[in-house]
Amino acid sequence: MSTNSSETTAATAANPDLEARIRRKLTGQRFMHLIGADLTTILPGRVEAALDLAEQHLQQRGFAHGGLIATLADLVAGFAAVTLVPDNFGVVTSDLKISYLHPGVGQKIKAIGWVLKAGRRLHFCEAEVWCDDLLIAKASATMAVIEPT
To answer: Which residues does residue 130 pair with via DSSP β-bridges, in sequence order?
Structure first.
């Protein structure tokens, strides 16, 4: 998925506090911090994360664990959806489907998530997970919008 740089600049100018708002919400993401992931890009409808692969992220054959890859896909798809809801709303994963394309062998994992269609109650998202320069997984996710109580 590509992003036009003029669209990115316009989107950032229209929402100058978006990154601060999302970073504030990230403080509650304990699992993301536990695995060592960090969001590197925050734009309306698009989020990217990175993680340096370490021994604790690997399965018995030395590949990035499938649960780690699914977690990163879920994280970026979910936070891409969060960028499009009001600050007092939230999202939770309703459905996640992931296809593993290659083993994750390398130094760095990058996950990219975006919203395909935002709705009032559901956001339909996609994600890609890369290991170094190789696409290792594709995911689709449905995020349910949670209104304040």
So the answer is: 110, 135
pTM equals 0.87
Closest by CA position to 82, among listed 111, 139, 44, 120: 44
pLDDT at 138: 98
pLDDT band at 63 (very low <50, low <70, confident <90, very high): very high
Vertex 36, ends 35 and 37: CA angle to 5°? 100
Q: Among 32, 25, 46, which residue's Cα sits nearest to residue 146?
A: 25
Nearest C-alpha neighbor of 24 from the set 49, 36, 42: 42
pLDDT digits (tens, 9 = 90+) for 28-58: 888 888 999 999 999 999 999 999 999 999 9
DSSP code string of 93-133: EEEEEEEE-S---SSEEEEEEEEEEE-SSEEEEEEEEEETT
